Amino acid sequence: MASSTIISRKMIKLLSPTPPSLRCHKLSFMDHINFHLHSPYAFFYPKIPQNYSSKISQILENSLSKVLSFYYPLAGKINNNYTYVDCNDTGVEYLNVRIDCPMSQIIDDPYNDAVGVVFPQDLPWSSSWNRSPLVVQLSHFDCGGIAVSACTSHTIFDGHSLSKFINDWASTARNMDFKPSPQFNASTFFPLPSETNLSSTLPTTHPSKRHVSRMYNFSSSNLTRLKDMVTKESHVKNPTRIEVASALVHKCGVTMSMEKSGMFKPTLMTHAMNLRPPIPLNTMGNAVCIILTTTVTEDEVKLPNFVAKLQKDKQQLRDKLKDMKKDMMPLYTLELGKNAMNIIEKDTHDVYVCSGMTNTGLHKIDFGWGEPVRVTLATSNKNNFIFMDEQSGDGLNVLITLTKDYMLKFQSNKELLEFASPVVESTK
């Protein structure tokens, strides 16, 4: 197993201090009820041009310092009841780390768990309380390749906000005259009630060491095959990439569960829906509502039936939110979350959690030395499916996290392997 050695650790300060008028960043109700964890992403660059190799860290540090002047809450401190961020310009943790192996040993490993070495050892998915809302690690491999990892507080950022920040940081690294335009005004759309019931916050969960992850690729042609199969056997129209891919991994999960228990168990699958619009695209913070899709019979698990059900659930949520006052959306989101947690606690359903980081540009993040060969996250909670754009083309990568015994069955599923293949990308 590869090990890491910290070369240096520092705090990156803002290039321009935060004005006193912005010192207190009020968190929104959506922020308050979210999971208070760090979301850990990593970007792998195997071949660095010689003219960049000696100055990579300086480029990252300088551009981070500038972009933080626009994303100032990331350099502050979240208060202990998650109602505001003290934007005190403390700075962002930045680590330079040496990894004692070639990059190929990490990203060619069949399991994604090996990527944990490029994150601060005590950080992935850990609480964002009493820790910098953003922690960056630059990892240097023996082969000369690097990985840039960014762990951002989910209290401050959802996936949309994270992708905006990373894209703006990369743009700044390529052109220091670039000026980002984030707006930290989510609390005006989703105000925190004056008497907040702190016990209403959704519970924080931590991944178990018994969980393992593998990444699978759905090529553009295989996604087209899946879409054709779904539309020919049902009245479903224009299914999306994620709808058909999530329906397949859900079906494989059900098959795996039935092989293990000998019987069908009802399922609950959650998807995240971005609320931008109706709120502006450059609004930072958490603005996501969850879609709950359940099955109670084996027939509902079939791909055409599940996609039809998922589309219906999505449309019902859109209709529900369409005429809803924005300040009521967090309460509704919280209610959906509580409904999901009640099902989880009763153990009446197998639960699968889907999230998507597609159409964000993260698969092409270029700090000046080219695009990454791999973008991924640290291992998450069990039965978790995270969809991302593949590094080239219109396909999808999905990071699947299961318990070890379930993964052994899942990875040999013939229907899965007919449409998806394990991602192992050689850096040689």
UniProtKB/TrEMBL annotation:
Q: What are the alphabetically sorted keywords of the record?
A: Acyltransferase, Transferase
Question: Domain of life, per the record?
Answer: Eukaryota
Single Gene Ontology MF annotation: acyltransferase activity
A single Pfam family, by name? Answer: Transferase
The similarity comment for this entry is: Belongs to the plant acyltransferase family.
Name this protein carries in UniProt: Acylsucrose acyltransferase 3
What is the source species? Solanum pennellii (Tomato)
Q: What is the lineage of its organism?
A: Eukaryota, Viridiplantae, Streptophyta, Embryophyta, Tracheophyta
